[in-house]
Design brief:
This protein is mainly alpha-helical. Helix content is 68%, strand content 0%. The chain is built from five helices and no strands. The protein has helices spanning 11-36, 42-50, 54-61, 65-81, 86-98. It is globular, with a radius of gyration of 16 Å.
């Protein structure tokens, strides 16, 4: 009797998926900023997004982690750029998600 099936995904494939995901949302972020004519430094946004630890937010807020991360992103954009934009918050959140998106594998 088979109790479990393990699928091993090669590390190189994982890195390729991560790269595709990151570049897709980075391109969307840059195009959206350009379309809206926001005076935003993308490198500063990327630097900020890299400081957000999803693990910390998950441990502290559990099911509210995504909501709290979006709130922090929104506060950052409002404080530094005087911008309130839910689509921009979503795109920055996707960049944050990249940091841990494929760490635990692919989910069915």
């Amino acid at each position: 009797m088979i109790k479990a099936i393990w699928i091993v995904i090669p590390e190189g494939y994982q890195r390729e998926l991560e790269s595709i995901y990151y570049n897709f949302f980075l391109d969307k972020l840059k195009k959206y900023i350009e379309k809206k004519k926001y005076n935003i430094n993308v490198d500063e946004i990327l630097n900020f997004s890299s400081t957000i630890s999803k693990d910390f937010f998950y441990e502290k807020y559990r099911g509210l982690a995504s909501k709290k991360i979006k709130e922090k992103i929104g506060e950052f954009l409002e404080r530094n750029y005087l911008i309130k934009d839910n689509i921009l918050v979503f795109l920055v959140k996707k960049i944050v998600d990249y940091e841990s998106s494929f760490r635990s594998g692919l989910h069915a």
